Amino acid sequence: MNLPCPMLIRFHEAHPTAIVQAMTRVPALFLVLCALNCATPQARPESFATLEPPASEAGYLARLLINESPFPGEKGYLSEADTRNCMLAILWAVHSRIHFVPEGYRQEQIAAVKTDDVFDVITAGGERGQCDGFYRDAQGKLAAVPRVEQRVQYLLKIANSGGKPGKFAGLLNYAQGLSNAYLEGGIEEADRFAGIRSVDQLSVTGRGYSWMTDRDYYSPGGNFVRIPNDMSGSLGGNRFFTLKEL
Amino acid sequence: MIATKHLWSAELLFRFHGRRSATSPGHSGSRTAALQMAKAILILFLIGAASSIAAGETETNTTPADAYAELSSLDTLSEVMRHLYRWYLDETDFAGIVQSPALAFGIHPLHPELDDGDKSLYGEIEIPSLGVLVRMKKADYRIEELGTEVKSQRFKIVNVERSAKGAPRDDSRREVNYPVRDMMDYLFRTRSQPDFPSPELSRRLGDAVADVIRERFEQHAAEGDQTVFVSPLSPVANEIWLFWQDAKMLIRWASDIELDNPAVWDHESLAIKTFDIEEQVVLSFHEAAGSNAFVTRDQVGRALYNCVILGQKRTVPRDRF
Fold it and tell me: In the predicted model, what is the mean pLDDT of residues A157-177?
């Protein structure tokens, strides 16, 4: 029920004397109904996909996974399963930068930061840092460039249109579910790159530690080693990289 | 096979009716005419059934290999080479091919696991003498939420990879060879050939550029009319680059949907990526190891060459944003 509570509030601000006089004449029932309306949440149409707020840790992490992965119609899209695998591999990469620093490496060499906080890993280097577009603002709060939220809101709009949930909703909910689960207890699914020991006769550490748009001219530099196609190194239009064994 | 069996059965049926009609006493002319009509109708029906069955057999007889024949065509391979020439290759690459009489291409169909109902085709073109693998896609699926058909008219490049190892050699791989001299001549003749977007696509690009400029105008302290350069559009690549001169920004539109499909521009925010040349360029990725935020000066140089030298210069009037 939508009763004009906001209108009453605006009128009161403009005409305080008049509203006091008017209110003395308003039936009590009307006032009660008005109060109930203001207290009751507005009914919302069914949502097939929901995300935590961007300022929350779970919402922020989900947005990283979404930002880096293609949806239907976008360049790099192969399948829903492939995009999900991409999201999972990205989560593993940021997790490994904290918890699986290979022998002989310092964390700063592979993550540009020394920390045990996954959000420090994500925001390391600022706006143009390790994860392009994700940074901490001047107050140290988690922040992202506007295009990240613009795209997310657009994807949500698509996901929640139509009469039934589809791939967009599935992928958005997957990203949020993965993020929630990670922050609560870690990653259940396996790291597909964990067992790699050699790439083109080069000894490597295994595990993915970086990802970039899958173009031959993109490379993270340093000791990062490209994981080839026959080891599923390309996911969601991204190329994943492991590390050279020292 | 099925049509033949039915015709044989029909013949037996009519022979039976004919024998009975000849020997049965009291046979009337109207009954004979009805039988003749029924026979004619049945024959026509069976002919139609045979035709439709034959057509179905023709469709199902299209082999999977035919679907990939486009990848071996000189037209496709020439355009792929031209795209590589403009965006990937340099002088050292040519040294590897000019000594041979023929340029070999290995064509390899790929069959990744796709969504239900997705009939897209994937293939790989290997050019061993260049150490290059080009992944191609001919999209054919539907985005239910958008009500959009994503259907490519031809195979498009989705990825280019340098690979000394090359693609796996199996029975599905085909090799085609074209004279090196012919290919080199083509690349030389077309090295400055402009392939500009259609008027309709140009119009949509103009609107999209105006939106980008409007969003970032204040940030880049730009003034007055803005100048952009639009790269040529390759027939085998679903992406287009722009250089926004006043902001020193590269803008890329890339999509799985054909860029001249209105659906791309109804959802253009999904297709755009920007690169601030002043902020995001390094000489080498070693300068920012592990980061995915940068492009190299070499890559930017290629993009600028395509936009400024080979592309079109446009002015975006102040009143459009």
Answer: 94
User: From the list A73, A155, A210, which residue is nearest B290 (CB)?
Assistant: A210
CA atoms within 13 A on the CB side of A215: 13
| pLDDT score of B42 | 59
ipTM of this complex = 0.77
Confidence label for A40 from pLDDT (cuts 50, 70 and 90): very low
Q: Which residue has the higher pLDDT, A24 or B164?
A: B164
A24 by DSSP, 3-state: which?
helix
- Is it the case that residue A84 has pLDDT exceeding 90? yes
A162 to B162: CB separation less than 8 angstroms, yes or no? no
Query: Residue A44 — pLDDT band, cuts 50, 70, 90?
Result: very low
**Could you tell me if A94 and A183 are in contact, meaning their C-beta atoms sit under 8 angstroms apart?**
no
Among B160, B279, B285, select the one facing A219 at the smallest CB separation. Answer: B285
Q: What token pair was written down for B258? A: 């054909």
Phi–psi pair at B148, nearest 5 degrees: -115, 135
Distances (CA, A) of B285 to A208, A218, A224, B281, B295: 18, 8, 11, 9, 8
SS3 A54: coil
CA B254 to CA B240: how far, in whole Å? 7
What percentage of chain B's residues is helix, strand, coil (to nearest 5)? 45, 25, 35
Tokens of A126: 């600022």
- Eight-state DSSP code of residue A42: P
| pLDDT value at residue B65 | 62
Please compute the mean of the pLDDT values over residues A125-137 and round it to a whole number: 85
Cα B165 to Cα B274: distance, rounded to the nearest angstrom = 33
- Cα–Cα–Cα angle for B166, B154, B259, rounded to 5 degrees: 110
B-chain residues near A200 (CB < 8 A) = 164-165
Average pLDDT (B198-212) is 84
> What one-letter code names the amino acid at A2?
N
Residue B295: strand pairing partners: B281
| Residue A60, both tokens | 């922020």
Residue that wins the pLDDT comparison between B180 and A163 = B180
Residues of A in contact with B113 (CB under 8 A): 79, 81-82
One-letter amino acid for residue B171 of the chain: D
* pTM given for the model: 0.78
Enter the DSSP assignment of B171: T
Are A217 and B299 in contact (CB < 8 Å)?
Answer: yes
Does residue B231 have a pLDDT over 80?
Answer: yes
For A74, which of B168, B255, B289 is closest by C-beta distance?
B255
Angstrom distance (rounded) from CA B141 to CA B148: 9
Distant-in-sequence, close-in-space partners of B189: CB < 8 Å, separation ≥ 6: none
